[in-house]
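User: Please run a holo structure prediction.
Assistant: Happy to. Please share the sequence and the ligand.
User: Here you go; the ligand is inosinic acid.
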Amino acid sequence: MANVVVVGAQWGDEGKGKIVDWLAEQADVVVRFQGGHNAGHTLVIDGTTYKLSLLPSGVVRGGTLSVIGNGVVVDPWHLVDEIARLKTQGVSITPESLRIADNATLILPLHRELDHFRENANAALKIGTTKRGIGPAYEDKVGRRAIRVVDLADADLLGAKIERLLAHHNALRRGLGIEEVDAAALKSELLAIAPQILPFADTVWALLDEARRAGQRILFEGAQGALLDVDHGTYPYVTSSNIVAAQAATGSGLGPSAIGYVLGIVKAYTTRVGEGPFPTELTDAIGEKIGERGREFGVVTGRKRRCGWFDAALVRQTVRTSGIDGIALTKLDILDGFETIKICTGYRLDGQVIDHLPASQADQARVEPVYETIDGWFETTAGARSWADLPAQAIKYVRRIEELIGTTVALLSTSPERDDTILVHNPFED
Ligand code: IMP
């Protein structure tokens, strides 16, 4: 029996919600290990839609412990709002069902303001962030001046930490012409929210270690996608955390051997939100059609997602950087009815064919995709529950993807409905 890590294998929005929910039902503990409320996970359970950003997907179903690990950046005001919103949907979240790592970093209003300021200041430097303060909060963590969950419990130390933080931020804000932050006001805001956060704070690494030793099933729920990883993604057009599967260990406080099976979530085509290179992007009617049929709009920001053909070279890369053992392929039905379908197998750069996206930002912008074209299918794949329900050409497409990315399909999702899934292999039973 393995613990399972779910990781997005493209630029996020691969349809993790449904797969995570299916796995969460079999798990004892569900852990978020990176990112923050920049994520948007939609769960549809018994006809009710739940939208989660920061909370692990296990919170909606009873009987699972949800954990926010140290690798997550936590906006305490957002957390309180998200908990309150779920309460209106009948989901009760208590310290018995949710634990937050006491060493997790907090996102503060000054982080959100800085994110907004930078994104709006200079179009040429824009990353296309979610403007939630994610990047600035991670900067402070690495800069050793962050306020962490545990600091909310010690008013004196909190004051000293705020001074240290503001020595940096107020100098920056003066330079940018933004009003300085008042230390006493920030401290009282934090002390006011503290009683709503501290009951959830815990020594998460120890708790997870005990769960692991007791043989409990742990599901590590990744957010975003590996191509937005700060090291392995399309830097600088990335988020500010590690997303690759190894982060499940670092971001929760367990050793790498705790990880077990790595399930990559892969959409049958490619999308991206925000700026940055996208070799297979379709800016024509085909791209529009994919976007409309796939309802490609962001859960968090409502932004229209850029759409393109499946890029096997990129997914092959993330299969390797995340050590993906198998994939869940989603949204195959969106490609129903196309006469031909293209798959990118590599890139052309300066007359040479290469099998991966180079690290250089300039080269990433210049590469041209090398395509293979296969015949499409006209039958519907939506709602298929066995291979026998799929047209031969659709199976050929899936098999070709497996060959090109170097791993196999463990689950094939054919609609947002939970039962519309072809199960080849249950990752928990590896
Ligand atoms: P940030 O994470 O808000 O700093 O945004 C950095 C980049 O990551 C931008 O391109 C965002 O659009 C992208 N991003 C962040 N979270 C998500 C997500 O959950 N899905 C897809 N893209 C995301």
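The first strand starts at residue 4 and ends at 8.
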